[in-house]
Specification:
With about 525 residues, this protein is mainly β. The chain is built from two helices and 43 strands. A hairpin with a 5-residue loop joins strand 25 (about 275) and strand 26. The longest helix has 14 residues, at about 300-315. It is elongated.
Length: about 525
C-alpha cells in the first residue's frame, strides 16, 4: 500500500553541531546536539571507545598536565607525561611510568613538548619541555633523566622564573618565547646545535602591541615560503618570513591587531592551514584573516554561532589552559577545555574537516586535561589523553566502551517547521505518523532511542533495534557471503504521535559495546490547518 501523506527526508551529518539559539535560522542539515558521536564515516556514528594505557593509576593519582609520544630512535617508543605533582615521568610500554625524569617542577602550567636534536648523524634526538617557570628541560635520546637547558648557551633573559612558556621547531632551529621579562621576543638557536641560543639570536615582535606572545607555529605559505605565525594575547598575529638564507633579510609583519591567541597550545596545524582559539572564545582559520575578510572560506557564520556556544557553556577563565591537537588520520581537530565552573578540561570541541566546511561535535565523556597523538601497533597515530586521576587513555578504540563501561551518544535534529520541503508548511500543523531511520551495515545488536518533541515539548520515546545483518546459514553468515553483502542498508520504522508546528527528534544510545551508524532520517506526516 502506497503511503499517501508527506515524507521529509533529513540527511544527517552534513553540517554538524550549531550553537545558534535562533530556531528560525537553524538549517535542517545542522544539529542542536552532537555529543559523543562522530561524522568521519559520512554518517552519524557513536564515537569510538577508550581504554586505559596504564591499568593502575600513577602514584598519587595526579592530573596529567601534558603528554608526548617519544621515539628516541626509530624502534624505541616511550610515553612521557608531565603531572601536577611537578614530575616528568617516562614509560617504556608496561604502563607503570616507573622512571622519574625530573621532579620539583612547577605544578600549575601548560607544558609544551618540542622535538629537536639529531642535527647531524651522530647526535641524539632530543625532547625539549617548556613550562614558563623552570629552565627548559632536555631529554636526550633514551635517557632516564632530563637536564636543564645549558645556562652557558641559553638566552641571558631566561633566568630564575623568567622562562619561555612555549617553543617550536622551524627551519632547522629551535625557537622559544613567552618569558615574562621580555614577552614580545622570539629567540632561536643555531642550526648545528638546538641547545645553543647564543649562536642564534632573537627577534623583537612589535613590542608595543598586545601583552605577550603566547604561541608560534612553523608554517609554509602557499608560495612555499618559510614562515612563522606568532600569536599574542589578547590581540596580535604576526608573520615572520625566514625564507631568505641571510638572517638580516628576515622580516616581521603584522597580520592582525584585532585577532590574537589565548593559549600556548591553542593554535594547531591542520593540513594546509592553522586553526586557533582567540581570546574571545572563537575558533578561527588563519586563511580567513590573511584573505582580509572573515568569509574567506565561508566559515564566519558557522564559527560565530559556535563561539557563542563556547562562551555560554565553558569556563572562560580557563581558556589559557586549552590544549589543541590535529588527528590527520580522521582529519579532525580536537580542543580540550573546561565546562562552566569546572577547573579541569572535561570537554572537547571537535571539528571534522572531511567536507568543505568543518562540522562541530562535542565529547562529554572524557576528562582530557591534555590530548596528543600516540602511534599504535599498526603505525597509525591515534589520540591519547591524560585525565585528573593518574591515567593515560588511548582513544578511538573499536569497542564502544570506556574501560568496560557504557557511555551515551546523543544527537538531536533542529526544531523544524519543514518549510525547506514546502514553504507553505511553515505555519501549518504537522500530524506525526512514522519516523524511519536508515542504518548503514552493523555487526551487532543495538537499540537506538528517539525522544520526540513537538513545539519544544517532549511527547514520547520510541525505540529502534538495529539487529545483526545476516543470518547463520550452515557454516557462514549472510553478511560475509555473496548472498548477504555488507553494503546493504537497513531501515527501521516506528509509529509516532502528536502534532505541532515544529518537530524535533533526539536520538541516543547508552548500550555497552553498542554502536549505530545512521545516514538518514525519514519523517512521515500529514498536514493540518494553519495556525
Amino acid at each position: 500500500m502506497v503511503y499517501s501523506g508527506n515524507v521529509a527526508s533529513l540527511t544527517l551529518g552534513l553540517e554538524g553541531l550549531t550553537g545558534n539559539q535562533n530556531v528560525t535560522q537553524i538549517r535542517p542539515t545542522q544539529l542542536i546536539q552532537a555529543e559523543n558521536v562522530t561524522f568521519h564515516t559520512g554518517a552519524i556514528q557513536k564515537e569510538e571507545g577508550a581504554t586505559k594505557y596504564n591499568s593502575t593509576a600513577i602514584s598519587g593519582t595526579p592530573t596529567i598536565l601534558g603528554g608526548w609520544d617519544w621515539w628516541p630512535t626509530t624502534v624505541l617508543q616511550r610515553a612521557i607525561v608531565y603531572t601536577d605533582a611537578g614530575t616528568l615521568l617516562r614509560d617504556t610500554g608496561d604502563g607503570t611510568f616507573g622512571t622519574t625524569l625530573k621532579s620539583g617542577l612547577a605544578t600549575s602550567v601548560v607544558p609544551v613538548f618540542v622535538e629537536g636534536g639529531d642535527e647531524v648523524a651522530a647526535n641524539n634526538r632530543k625532547l625539549f619541555i617548556f613550562n614558563g617557570n623552570d629552565p627548559v628541560q632536555v631529554l636526550s635520546g633514551d635517557g632516564t633523566t632530563t637536564s636543564d637547558l645549558n645556562t652557558a648557551t641559553d638566552p641571558a633573559d631566561w633566568t630564575g622564573t623568567n622562562q619561555p612558556t612555549f617553543g617550536f621547531a622551524h627551519e632547522g632551529r629551535l625557537w622559544g618565547a613567552g618569558n615574562a621579562n621580555d614577552p614580545h621576543r622570539l629567540y632561536y638557536t643555531s642550526i648545528t646545535d638546538h641547545e645553543d641560543f647564543l649562536a642564534g639570536g632573537s627577534l623583537s615582535i612589535y613590542p608595543g602591541e598586545g601583552e605577550k606572545l603566547v604561541a608560534g607555529i612553523s608554517f609554509k605559505g602557499r608560495d612555499e615560503r618559510a614562515l612563522i605565525v606568532a600569536f599574542k594575547f589578547p590581540a596580535g598575529i604576526y608573520i615572520i618570513d625566514t625564507s631568505d638564507p641571510t638572517i638580516a633579510n628576515w622580516s616581521v609583519a603584522r597580520l592582525s591587531n584585532i585577532f590574537g591567541g589565548v593559549s600556548v597550545r591553542g593554535a594547531i596545524m591542520i593540513d594546509d592551514d592553522i586553526l586557533f582559539f582567540d581570546s574571545q572564545g572563537n575558533i578561527n582559520l588563519i586563511s580567513q584573516i590573511s584573505q582580509g575578510d572573515l568569509g574567506g572560506r565561508e566559515l564566519s557564520t558557522l564559527i560565530a554561532d559556535f563561539g557563542q556556544f563556547i562562551r555560554e557553556n565553558h569556563n572562560l577563565s580557563r581558556l589559557p589552559n586549552i590544549r589543541g591537537m590535529y588527528d590527520p588520520q580522521k582529519r579532525e581537530a580536537h580542543f580540550s577545555l573546561s565546562e562552566t565552573s569546572q577547573t579541569i578540561n572535561n570537554r572537547r570541541v571537535i571539528l571534522d574537516f572531511n567536507r568543505e566546511l568543518p562540522r562541530f561535535r562535542r565529547n562529554t565523556r572524557d576528562v582530557a586535561e591534555d590530548i596528543w597523538l600516540r602511534k599504535d601497533a599498526d603505525g597509525i597515530q591515534r589520540p591519547a589523553a591524560g585525565d585528573n586521576a593518574g591515567f593515560v587513555w588511548t582513544l578511538d578504540q573499536t569497542a564502544r566502551n570506556k574501560d568496560g563501561a557504557a557511555y551515551t551518544a546523543t544527537f538531536q535534529l533542529p526544531h523544524m517547521n519543514l518549510q525547506h520541503i514546502d514553504p507553505s508548511l511553515a505555519f501549518r500543523r504537522k500530524n506525526g505518523q512514522f519516523l524511519q531511520i536508515i542504518l548503514e551495515p552493523e555487526v551487532e545488536d543495538s537499540t537506538i532511542f528517539a525522544n520526540i518533541f513537538w513545539d519544544g515539548r517532549f511527547s514520547e520515546t520510541v525505540a529502534f533495534t538495529s539487529g545483526v545483518i545476516g543470518t547463520a546459514l550452515g557454516t557462514f553468515t549472510l553478511d560475509v557471503h555473496r548472498l548477504g553483502p555488507l553494503n546493504t542498508q537497513t531501515t527501521r520504522k516506528r509509529r509516532v504521535r502528536g502534532s505541532g508546528l515544529r518537530f524535533s527528534a533526539e536520538f541516543f544510545n547508552s548500550g555497552l559495546d553498542e554502536n549505530f551508524t545512521i545516514s538518514e532520517v525519514l519523517f512521515y506526516f500529514t498536514v493540518g490547518s494553519e495556525r
